[in-house]
Amino acid sequence: MIQKHVSVLVPAGAVALSCLNGPFILFDKTNEFLTAIGKKPLFNVQFVGLNKEARIYDRAFTVTPDTSIHELHHTDLIIIPAVNGNMKDVIEANKDFLPFIVAMHNKGAEVASLCVGTFLLAATGLLEGKKCSTHWNAENEFRNMFPDICLVSDKIITDDDGIYSSGGANSFWNLLLYLLEKYTNREMAVMFSKYFEIELDRHSQSAFTMFNGQRTHKDDVIKRAQEFIEQNYQDKITIKQLTNMLALSRRNFERRFKKATSNTVVEYIQRVKMEAAKKDLEGGKKNINEVMYQVGYTDHKAFRTTFKKVTGLLPLAYRNKYYRQYQAE
User: Fold this and answer.
1) The 3-state secondary structure of the chain, one letter per residue
2) Do both 88 and 236 map to the same domain?
């Protein structure tokens, strides 16, 4: 196997340190695994900064780049870590990385963003016509900033012609394992997952999503509709009921609702109902039927189908995943 050069960017801002340390651990430990079975190390991992000055994160951790964007002329994989904060400020502070990423990609480098690192990836323009994911909590902000990019917010991993992204937080490990299997083999990915006790082959972050509604828009009429839905989710809510309340035509209402919330009216109602159902299931005091009736469903099949569509799990599996009844011994 030909050695691969991996460039982990060292951005300005509130970087999630695990997104810097994680890639280094994965590829460095893989080199140890390979050496142990008599093979040559495969990965050359470097931290790459805007310059070679050390950066301090969380007031306590110092990361010193091995090289800078001005000195590095070839790489096989660029990893963009998550940087938290105001995303417009994050992009502005790291804007000099953008032409570097594009130039390396044009030379054949693959690019992977971790969690909200997708915002920096999107700012390069490389996601045009491609799919990506990010942390579920950043979905609304991403859609507002990059409305023309196809965000598949339920996915943990996207792979689109050498451009990769991962879902939120620790799900970046799943993308790293995916890349490890691609660059080596399944056996090596399994070995690493077992060694660090990371669950392989997770595909959806839907079960972790907490739906809070999209309220960053400025359409006050649509906000009234959202408030009504959220306060009356136990009832059967119809589009006609909402249009009559707001004195809007159905076509105008549906168009404005979709533009403001990135959901159709029906999708929004379903997500509000399922969020309420999730909380009841997590509490564990009600059975599935009680939860179903509580959120306004009477058809068991429809409830189960919608719940799985939204969360990726059936109601019973979801309750078993998140509810534990502790009893005193």
Assistant:
1) CCCEEEEEEECCCEECCHHHHHHHHHHHHHHHHHHHCCCCCCEEEEEEECCCCCEEECCCEEECCCEECCCCCCCCEEEECCEECCHHHHHHHCCCHHHHHHHHHHCCCEEEECHHHHHHHHHCCCCCCCEECCCHHHHHHHHHHCCCCEECCCECEEEECCEEEECCHHHHHHHHHHHHHHHCCHHHHHHHHHHHCCCCCCCECHHHCCCCCCCCCCCHHHHHHHHHHHHCCCCCCCHHHHHHHHCCCHHHHHHHHHHHHCCCHHHHHHHHHHHHHHHHHHHCCCCHHHHHHHCCCCCHHHHHHHHHHHHCCCHHHHHHHHCCCCCCC
2) no
